[in-house]
Amino acid sequence: MLTVAHLSKQFGTQPVLRDISFSLSPGEVLAVLGRSGCGKTTLLKILAGLEAPDAGTLLAQGQDLGPVPPNERQMVYLYQEPLLFPHLSVFENVAFGLRIRHVVKAEIDRQVHELLAELDLSAHARKAPDHLSGGQRQRVSFGRALIIRPRLLLLDEPFGNLDAQTRADMQQLFLRVSRQHQITSLFVTHDSREALTVGTRFGYLDQGQLTCFPSVTEFVQDARTAVRQELAFWESIQQTLPASASTS
């Protein structure tokens, strides 16, 4: 589905990405963990065609993406902000990609209603985006991306602005829908638990260098990711809860 080979990028004299190589098979979700400023967003922008690499090749299903403009790459880039059309209803926001492709009305109605039901948005179909919660707006954004069946979904910490419970709900929704539709995705995050929740494969980006791990165990055990320490911390918190509850 996607092959990235020896990708490099720098801004001025500052290297941002250094000789990055990886591949994605259909239906895989590569969760890339990394701190702020490590190059995660730049990587996604290069894949989406919003930035040009200094070196390296990008192939999608064997097609060289170098000369392909962003609107023809069949990729969707999701940010933390849903960026919905404020003047369109939920239904029309999701339907937009089909309308500009001149899909017949009956087929648009069928596909959009099915997807809204899947995303638990049917009751909100005629609402404007400013009448929705943050989680609902992000689901609409997700639906608008899915409706056009992109060959690759690029997610730039898409749930980062949501509260903890809504974020957890969105992670489970993404997991369910991505499995059902066999969506190939690159999901970048600075949250190790989120990476473990959504990923089928795992990477760590540090100072512009990407390490892809052959197994979740190696991802967890690598000291750079700090996943083992965070899991140990939350385990210790859970162990103290019963004692705290009994003395309260």
TrEMBL record:
What GO cellular component term, any one, is given? membrane
> What molecular functions are annotated in GO for this chain?
ABC-type ferric iron transporter activity; ATP binding; ATP hydrolysis activity
Q: Which CDD domains match?
A: ABC_Carb_Solutes_like
Which BP terms from GO are recorded? Answer: quaternary ammonium group transport
Do you know which Gene3D superfamilies this protein is assigned to? P-loop containing nucleotide triphosphate hydrolases
Tell me yes or no: is Transcription among this UniProt entry's keywords.
no
Q: Which InterPro entries match?
A: AAA+_ATPase, ABC_SmlMolc_Importer, ABC_transporter-like_ATP-bd, ABC_transporter-like_CS, ABC_transpr_FbpC, P-loop_NTPase
Q: Which residues form the ABC transporter domain?
A: 2-232
Task: Give UniProt keywords alphabetically.
Answer: ATP-binding, Cell membrane, Ion transport, Iron, Iron transport, Membrane, Nucleotide-binding, Transport
A Pfam family recorded for this sequence: ABC_tran
Output the PANTHER family linked to this UniProt entry. SPERMIDINE/PUTRESCINE IMPORT ATP-BINDING PROTEIN POTA, SPERMIDINE_PUTRESCINE IMPORT ATP-BINDING PROTEIN POTA
Q: What is this protein called?
A: ATP-binding cassette domain-containing protein
